[in-house]
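Q: Give me the 3D complex with guanosine-5'-diphosphate-alpha-D-mannose.
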Amino acid sequence: MKKKVLITGISGQDGSYLSEYLLKNNYEVYGIIRRNSIVEHQRNRIEKLDKQINLEYGDLLDTSSLDRIFKSVKPDEIYNLAAQSHVRISFEIPHFTLQTNGLGVLNMLEAFRAHSPNSKFYQASSSEMFGRSVDNDNCQRETTPFEPTSPYGCAKVLAFNLVKHYRFAYSLFCSNGILFNHESPRRGSNFVTNKVVKTAVQIKLGLKDKLILGNMDSYRDWGHSKDYVVAMNKILNHNQPDDFVISTGITRSVRDLCNYVFTKLDLEMKKYIFQDKKYMRPEELKYLKGDSSKARKLLNWKPQISFEELIDEMIDHWMDIFSSN
Ligand code: GDD
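A: Here is the predicted complex, encoded as structure tokens.
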């Protein structure tokens, strides 16, 4: 019999890659989507999977929908990827962010405990939880204390702790993947990698004349979403529930990212890039570099796609779109 999997946030970047990966590995895929007035916007990443996956309307804050879905699907594996995922926007909508990314996870755990306690539960935890905290060797790992610097990070710490608490209190198989930044052509255009690549391609093709950014001196450890969904599946198929950092171990600044993209497109960066306070955060997480040795050793996972291959794929994606218009 095929294993059944339930994915929240299935229409997002990670949800779509994870669905493709699990379908290839012979899982039966169920996903929760929220009602949206523009259906096309919500489903474009999973459009081509339409006939192979089962979609249910629900919401992390609507416990009746979670009860109904858990009872009817009876999943073997649950991936909780749904969230308000934008850090800067979390300063503007802190209440909603805390509700969805904190209370929403509690609702999921309660539905899991009540209706499907023998399944396995994956929580999309985040490197944003580390905030100001860095170990002496300039890395963050599973043992690094959390000092979040945003409402988003605070909510993710709450969810992380709830998952661990449910593991110990009720002996449930629930695990946290502490994922560092991961990108792809499917990334929303208001995250920095896709914003830089998309706008630089538009500049190259004469469709735009500037790129306006916030802080260019923060450092991030960027991997490919396709590699990171494999880690999620490995985390749930480990012999015991646990928490794992998933990262490349290489860090670059936003300025380095811009430099790579503009050089690749043969554009002089300083002519086109401007900064605006609008894109700055009240408190910035300045530096991320993940040590994923635990996952590499215990899960036999390592990233396959380099930063250069990732960004080149994103450049090709936007070139195809804008050159054919
Ligand atoms: N979005 C954005 N837009 N970021 C900018 C801009 C801009 O115009 N200019 C500079 N930045 C900087 C941000 O201040 C931040 O330091 C860095 O670029 C990365 O920003 P994002 O791409 O928005 O990602 P993030 O690091 O805040 O959050 C992402 O990674 C987390 C894991 O650490 C998101 O995917 C989160 O959901 C995820 O948990």
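A quick observation: The two ends are 46 Å apart (CA to CA).
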